[in-house]
Amino acid sequence: MSVESLNQPMPRQQLPERSANAQPNGHLNDQPNGPFNGPVGHQPSQSPNLLFGAVVDARVAQELKRQVAAELHEQLSASADAASADPAGRRQRGRALIEDAVARWSDAYAVAHGVTPTREQDRALAEVVFDLLFRAGRLQPYLDDPEIENILINGYDDVWISRAHQPLRQVPPIADSDEELVELLQDLARRHGGGERSLSTATPTLALRLEGGMRLQAMTHVTPRPYVAIRRHRVQNATLGDLVQLGTVDSTIAAFLAAAIRARKNVMITGTQGVGKTSLLRAMAGEIPPDERVGTLESEFELWLHTLGHLKQVVPMEAREGNGERIDGRVAGEVSIGELIPAALRMTLSRIIVGEVRSSEVVPMLRVMTNGEGGSMCTLHARTPHMVVDRIAELCLEYGAQMTDQLAYRLTANALDFVVHVTMLDETGIGGKRHRFVSHVLEVTGLGEQGRPALNTVFGPRQGGVDAQGRQIWPEPRGVPQTLPSCLDDLRRSGFDASLLRNPYGTWAAPLGLRIGGGQGGHGGQGGHADGSSEGRDGGGVGGAL
User: Fold this and answer.
1) Alpha helices in 205-250 (DSSP H)
2) Cβ–Cβ under 8 Å, residues 326 and 362
3) Taking the CB of residue 329, how many other CB atoms lie within 10 A of it?
4) Which of 100, 197, 276, 509 has a CA-to-CA distance to 205 between 20 and 30 Å?
5) Which residues contact 507 (CB under 8 A, 6 or more apart)?
6) 0.85 exceeded by the pTM?
7) CA distance 460 to 477
8) What values do phi and psi take at 518, rounded to 5?
9) From CA 261, how far away is CA 263, in angstroms rounded?
10) What angle separates helix 119-134 from helix 58-78, to the nearest 10 degrees?
11) With contact defined as beta carbons under 8 Å apart, do 216 and 228 qualify?
């Protein structure tokens, strides 16, 4: 077996049905008349983990996991082979030990019960033990499902998932107790490759990345039960062209944003959680010339620009959590994004990209944008685009007593060129879809009235109504051209076709398809008139899923 194959789940096959005699000492249980049932557990459960027609008892899998873990630790402690101690080597040894342990258990089961488990059932049990020891246990099948966007855990037996364009639904427990769930989270933290991560009374919160780029946030000891939220970026290497096809942007906005990046404009992408800010940031980074040297700063790696291959030189930096101990009021071992920025400035970088600005690191980020060559980007949580200025000021005030509203406004006005806001309209509760799209592109044009940054709406939604000829104009919630940017010449020098901004309805390919509101018949996205006339359609899709 190759080392590469150790990272892949074993093939899923149809299990033959066996006798439905449930064993009170809990080995392999059957449910021959039931649907496909859970990965492990004392009770049959709806889950995509194992093979169709069989349930693996959690007690058996946990016991074999403990046996194999002890044997593996003993072997590695006695081994002088350094290669066997790396993750791939550990998995290779662990796989062999698991197969031996399952074979011994299978032989013992056959002697005790007079029924020999099939090869497929042995493989099913081995896969569960492998997931428990090296992956995410009963949680792993949901992590392996590319259609699942969110996993929400409110204690071991209250688990919810959401798939693309589907509402949340509850699924079976992913552990046998809250204590077992916490043990799983601690195992994941220990296997995390990005420095010290732990979950304990001293550090009751945990944030880390999982295999495949999913992000996990957990907390316990400050909540009545362990709570976990896991989120997947379903679009991990999309370009702006791909986002046009998904309906996240139209070809006009895509061309505008690409030109802004090439023109080295500083851009902040805003929106609420889960709307696709990171996916859009990653796509925009694809417009950076490949020879530039770029630095990324993130609390947990999500952009993965250093692995996508477009940029030849990427310096990826990940913040590090402390070990829970405090020295002079500071968590020992912690390195924040704000502390990484000064070091990043000495790495001869042409641009700096911050995955998400959450706190006082917004101040050094804005200073980078002000003092550097331009072209830096970041994301920020904000519910509406017109809240962004005050949201930045709030975070700036966390920087220290010397910061004021006016200074925060001046920093913002000097640093930012554009704010790109992503909106999501969720109609899954009424049988519709989740629609994610860019609704606003705002230009920051310096200080305006009362010392606040002045904003120019380059792209924004269009209200419905009746035009001068008495024709019905359907509302368009997506961004369409509104006002020419003051830096239009800079964008034209970077290849932007300014004539695209003459179309008042943009170049969205089709109506948004909302069940409530939005256009009907001759939609604003197709010319905006009730008679169905259109003005230059091209490209695109409906309801981007990021």
Assistant:
1) 240-246
2) no
3) 5
4) 276
5) 250, 251, 252, 500, 536, 537, 538, 539, 540
6) no
7) 8
8) 75, 180
9) 5
10) 60
11) yes
Gap between the Cα atoms of 57 and 141, Å rounded: 16
How many residues appear in the chain?
546
Nearest to 117 by CA among 174, 69, 60: 60
DSSP 409-446: HHHHHHH-SEEEEEEEEE-GGGT--EEEEEEEEEEEEE
Beta strands in 323-433 (DSSP E): 326-327, 330-331, 351-357, 377-381, 418-426
Q: In terms of C-beta density within 10 A (0-12 exposed, 13-18 middle, 19 or more buried), how is residue 469 classed?
A: exposed
The pLDDT assigned to 304 comes to 84
Question: Mean pLDDT, 10 residues at a time, over the chain (546 residues)?
Answer: 35 32 35 31 34 61 89 82 68 91 92 90 90 87 88 96 87 92 88 68 84 84 94 80 94 98 97 91 95 91 86 91 65 80 90 90 90 90 94 92 92 96 92 93 93 95 81 86 96 96 89 74 39 36 44
Q: What is the C-alpha to C-alpha distance for residues 458 and 501, in angstroms, rounded to an integer?
A: 9
Backbone angles phi, psi at 314, to 5 degrees: -130, 130
